[in-house]
Every structure is written in C-alpha cells, then in structure tokens.
Amino acid sequence: MALRRSVTRLVGDLNLLPSLLPRGAALLHSHATSFGFKEVPEEEKSKLVGNVFTSVSSNYDLMNDMMSAGLHRLWKDRLVSKLHPFPGMKHLDVAGGTGDVAFRVLESINSVSRRAMQHGLAETEEETQIYICDINPNMLNVGKKRAIERGLGENHCLHWIEGDAEALSFDDGSMDGYTIAFGIRNVTRIEKALAEAYRVLKRGGRFLCLELSHVELPIFKQLYDYYSFSVIPAMGELVAGDRESYKYLVESIRRFPNQEAFARMIVDTGFQKVEYENLVGGVVAIHSGLKL
Amino acid sequence: MVRASRRLLKDAANIGKAFSDFLACPLSKQPLRHCEDSQSRISETIGVSFPIIDGIPCLVPKDGKLLEDQNKSQVENGADPSSGNSERDLLLAVNIWVTGLI
C-alpha cells in the first residue's frame, strides 16, 4: 500500500472560529445548483443525477474497480473498520445501492458473533438490522442481485429501501450507525442530508462519510487532474458506453467542498468529535462524527 | 432474570411484523402501517401511501400517492390519474402537513 497515506485531522469547535456563514451559505447554494461544471435549476439536479445512476448502475462495480484499480475495496474496508460494527446494531447505509458497505458491515458483525460464540459469550438477543437506502431503484436491484450471489438473498438482517437522503424514512434516534459512501456529493442539499443523518442517529451514534475529495500535493495534483479529466471519461465511454455520466462524476468531485469545508458543515449540523482522514493524498477522505 | 425478560420481549416482537418498523413516513416522520391488499405502506397522519415494488419499499417523498386519489381511481375502474394531478395533490398534502406543524 505504498500510495496510502492517512492523516487524521480533528476539526476544532465552531466557537473558536469567526462565523463563516455568508461564505458557507454561498457554497451550499452553489452545490445545489451545480451538475458537475454546469449550472442547473435546483429542482432539476435530482433528476439529472438520477439519470446518471440509472445509466451507470449495471457497470457500477466494474467501473469502480477499473477507475480506482481496486483501491475502492480497501477504502470501504477502512470505512467499515472505523464504524466498529457490533452484533445487534441498527445501521443505515445511505446511497448504498449496490451493497458494498452493507455487506462489509454484515460480514464484520458475523465474524464478531462467531468469535463471541466460540468463547461462550453469545448473549445478545437483539437482532442486527442493516438498512440500505438509495434513491435509485436500479442501483438497489443490482445490490439485491449481488446479495443473492453472495448467499445473502434470504438474510433477514438486510433491508433494501428506496428513499431520499434528504428526507429519510426512519424514526428519530433509531440508528447506531450511519454511513454514506460516494453518495453525499450527489445530493442536492448537503445540509439537509446531514441534518437527516443527525436526526436518525441515536445518542452515541456514529456518522461516517467516505467521499472523493481534494488533492493539494503539487505534482500529484496534476497527475490526478489529468487522470480524472482525460482517462476516466474515456474509460467510461469504452466500458459503459457513457462518457457524459463519468464526466459528471469527475466534475462533481471538483465542485464538492474540500475536506475542511465539509468538516465544518458536519460540525454545524451538531456532530461532535468531527475528524477526517485523507487516503491516497486526499483523493478520498473519510469524515466522521459522533452524535452526543 | 434480565435474560429471561429479554427473551420474552423478543418472542413478542416476533409475533408481529414489528421488525422493519423503524420505518417512518419520510414526510411526517410518523409510523407507517403495512397494507396487505395494496402491498404498500400507509402514512395515516397525512393520508399517503407508498408502494412496495419488487419487495423494495419506495419511500421517496415524490413516490407517495394520496389515499383518496387511489380510491377514486379504483372506483372509476381504469381511469388514469395523470401523474401531474397526483404530484399536485401530493404537494397539497405536504402543504397541509407543514401548516399543521406551524
């Protein structure tokens, strides 16, 4: 893992900083009306993003492997390890369509349960529940098929729900964990998605977000930009027959707030102990926070 | 004793379909009722039903249908409620609900 560098930064409390409100509000508005580098009406953005994911859903996992040279698997492993899953937990994976994160959470919990049983410690009567919520039914269908292939088709812990990250269909304080992997930059109003995450988490619940982020290292940045804008759309055209969707994906990364700005948004929502960890020099960042 | 009472509670939960009902209406955040006939989840508070397609509950706000609209279309037997109308009515339902909150 020569390329992996992890740097965890703890984001300070809001009262230590001057108010960033005017700039913050402008940032959010610009995110809500941007579709990649294009400007679109806010109401349109959700539909356009929906079209992108309907189009890419059948090749989504293959393209992830190709674009990240398989690294996305390690990033998701890291995300789930930071979650510290436990048997009996109620977990919500948002924008988790094809199931990658949910399967990992389930497998992690099963291995904990197995170890507990070996030591005669299986006392928990509560059942683990993992909810996979995605706004796009095609992505969910791909996920369900993958679950069946992995022998998890009849598993009563996994629940597939079509829903909107900005208006979640879960009770207040019902979840122990909330993850969103490569989903938050596709949401129209980030602050609404964050507020919903805060609402559904229990006290002590953990928020984790894995997202493509900003690279600042001098030469690496140029290489990464070249890779993003030249190689990826071409790969998208070759493999999935859809250059435009992959162009959107790449542009949306650049339009998304950087690590610090996004961390501020998470703090503003009410989360505590907010920190982020850069992977691969900032190509990907895992933001985390606790609801206390 | 704690273990025994936990087991009792677990059995009680298994009798109903309680498990999946951490689910709430995405608009009103109130509990949903499962309806066997129409295979949907119903939010009583605002009178909206959410379909279940291919075993997946569709709880996106704009997928909700007002209950009166559904009944009307069943009575008229095949008359097609235009999607424009149901969207408008859903907007009305949301407005009513929001006003109720203020």
UniProtKB/TrEMBL annotation, chain A:
It is a peripheral membrane protein. It is found in: Mitochondrion inner membrane. GO terms for molecular function: 2-methoxy-6-polyprenyl-1,4-benzoquinol methyltransferase activity. Coiled coil: none annotated. InterPro entries: SAM-dependent_MTases_sf, UbiE/COQ5_MeTrFase, UbiE/COQ5_MeTrFase_CS. CDD domains: AdoMet_MTases. Its EC number is 2.1.1.201. Pathway: Cofactor biosynthesis; ubiquinone biosynthesis. It is an enzyme of class 2 (transferase). Keywords: Membrane, Methyltransferase, Mitochondrion, Mitochondrion inner membrane, S-adenosyl-L-methionine, Transferase, Ubiquinone biosynthesis. One of its GO terms (biological process) is methylation. Component of a multi-subunit COQ enzyme complex, composed of at least COQ3, COQ4, COQ5, COQ6, COQ7 and COQ9. Interacts with PYURF; the interaction is direct, stabilizes COQ5 protein and associates PYURF with COQ enzyme complex. Belongs to the class I-like SAM-binding methyltransferase superfamily. MenG/UbiE family. This is 2-methoxy-6-polyprenyl-1,4-benzoquinol methylase, mitochondrial. It comes from Phoenix dactylifera. The lineage of its organism: Eukaryota, Viridiplantae, Streptophyta, Embryophyta, Tracheophyta. The gene is LOC103713462.
UniProtKB/TrEMBL annotation, chain B:
It comes from the Eukaryota. Belongs to the PREY family. This is Protein preY, mitochondrial. It comes from Phoenix dactylifera (Date palm). The lineage of its organism: Eukaryota, Viridiplantae, Streptophyta, Embryophyta, Tracheophyta.
